[in-house]
Automatic annotation (TrEMBL):
It catalyses: DNA(n) + a 2'-deoxyribonucleoside 5'-triphosphate = DNA(n+1) + diphosphate. One of its GO terms (biological process) is DNA-templated DNA replication. Gene3D superfamilies: 1.20.272.10, P-loop containing nucleotide triphosphate hydrolases (3.40.50.300). InterPro entries: AAA+_ATPase, ClpA/B, DNA_pol3_clamp-load_cplx_C, DNA_pol_III_gamma-3, DNA_pol_III_sug/sutau_N, DNA_Rep/Repair_Clamp_Loader, P-loop_NTPase. One of its GO terms (molecular function) is DNA binding. It comes from marine metagenome. Its EC number is 2.7.7.7. This is DNA-directed DNA polymerase. SUPFAM superfamilies: P-loop containing nucleoside triphosphate hydrolases, post-AAA+ oligomerization domain-like. Residues 384-418 are annotated as: Disordered. Residues 389-403 have a biased composition (Low complexity).
Length: 418
């Protein structure tokens, strides 16, 4: 039997089992209990926050034969069919891969058909990916939907959804969960599944989840399978190097992380998150949602550098992460950013002159020289033809043009001008 991942095994089946989305749960559950369900809902929020789960629970509640105060019973045939993915009352469509107008017309042609249950629910995931033609086709149905049909539109980018669609839907926003709720979820799953995970493992899982319940349980699966990855050591080493304005140590920490199999972009994103946490601490913003280890690290770094330094570091690293998306060698972009970050973190009296000989003896000079060489090779590869542009050759001067001018022939003696 194939292993079922933890996030699928512990997916909420009732509204009461959803964590941290009280406003969404209350709106949907009360609408079902009071029979005031609208014809269209727009659920938005970051990935892994429960958009699809809420839509499936709503589909169960609308067709449950033993409804209990707006909650599905999860025991009747209709509820079990939705849980098993075999229900004829719930139709799911991935709008990212079925985004053309013909796909939408084919779907909408079946809207008016009957359904075994009371309500037919259409779940359109990533609805912001629809083409303008598909949006117009959907809009026509949203304006005059059949009485037995409910549309649930899910998206991670609601600002990209057409305003005409948003105005015809009730918009419910799902939020990332605080670390306390993620820790409680993790401990409940560990206890129920009889897993052996210590406090250090749970702390790592909560940090890796970054507010997403699904990502948290996926991280728990990884910890159970292979232990705690040594990811934080790279971020800690980079922060130490930045605080000490040590470019060589920063480049060395990055190289060590890559040797352990950590991608440069993942390293950059983790460092950006750590810098943001330190920035919030330096500004006096409460960061109680952070795990204790992350909070202590942010407070330590914020105590060593000024908020202005952290701001410049955030800007430089953010620019580098954008450039890394289209770079043929993302590592070079991150290395250049780290050198700039260490310069930004240097004391106010530091200058941009040559590095001291002691630093060069520690390998900093060699690291900078190697980085400069790699940047030059990258620039050469980006030029048309695969090399650096060739200087235009000097103009060619013909031999005739270089010879001295020939004087006109002299007139014969004794003859005057004509």
């Amino acid at each position: 039997v194939a292993y079922t991942s933890l996030y699928r095994r512990y997916r909420p089946r009732r509204f009461a089992e959803m964590r941290g989305q009280e406003h969404v749960v209350a709106a949907l559950r009360n609408a079902v209990a009071e029979e005031r369900v609208l014809h269209a809902y727009l659920l938005s929020g970051p990935r892994g926050t429960g958009k699809t789960t809420a839509a499936r629970i709503l589909a169960k509640a609308l067709n449950c034969t033993q409804l209990e105060a707006g909650e599905p019973c999860c025991r009747c045939d209709s509820c079990e069919a939705v849980d098993a993915g075999t229900s004829f009352d719930l139709h799911e469509l991935d709008a990212a891969s079925n985004n053309k107008v013909d796909d939408m017309r084919d779907l909408l042609a079946k809207v008016a058909l009957g359904t075994p249950g009371r309500t037919k629910v259409y779940l359109l995931d990533e609805v912001h990916m629809l083409t303008p033609g598909a949006e117009n086709a959907l809009l026509k149905t949203l304006e005059e939907p059949p009485d037995h049909v409910v549309f649930v539109l899910a998206t991670t980018e609601p600002h990209k959804v057409a305003e005409t669609i948003r105005s015809r839907s009730q918009h419910l926003e799902l939020n990332l969960l605080p670390s306390e709720q993620l820790e409680a979820l993790t401990r409940d799953v560990v206890a129920d599944a009889d897993l052996e995970v210590d406090d250090a493992g749970i702390s790592y899982v909560v940090r890796a989840g970054r507010g997403s319940a699904r990502d948290t349980l996926s991280a728990l699966d990884r910890v159970v399978a292979g232990g705690i990855p040594d990811d934080d050591s790279t971020t800690d080493a980079l922060l130490t190097a930045l605080a000490g304005s040590d470019a060589g140590a920063a480049l060395g920490a990055l190289a060590a992380g890559i040797t352990r199999g950590r991608e440069p972009r993942v390293t950059g994103e983790a460092l950006l998150a750590a810098l943001r946490e330190a920035f919030l601490v330096s500004m006096g913003v409460p960061v109680t949602q952070l795990p204790e280890a992350d909070r202590a690290r942010a407070e330590a770094f914020a105590g060593e550098v000024t908020p202005a330094v952290i701001t410049r570091a955030l800007e430089a690293l953010g620019t580098a992460l954008v450039a890394m998306r289209r770079s043929p060698d993302p590592r070079v972009d991150l290395e250049v950013a780290l050198v700039r970050l260490t310069s930004a973190a240097a004391p106010s009296g530091a200058t941009g002159g040559p590095m001291p000989s002691s630093a060069a003896g520690d390998g900093v000079g060699a690291a900078i020289a190697s980085l400069t060489s790699r940047v030059e090779r990258l620039e050469a590869a980006l030029e048309p033809g695969g090399g650096l542009p060739v200087a235009p050759s000097a103009p060619v001067i013909s031999s005739a043009s270089s010879a001295p001018p020939v004087p006109p022939p002299s007139r014969p003696a004794g003859r005057g001008p004509a």
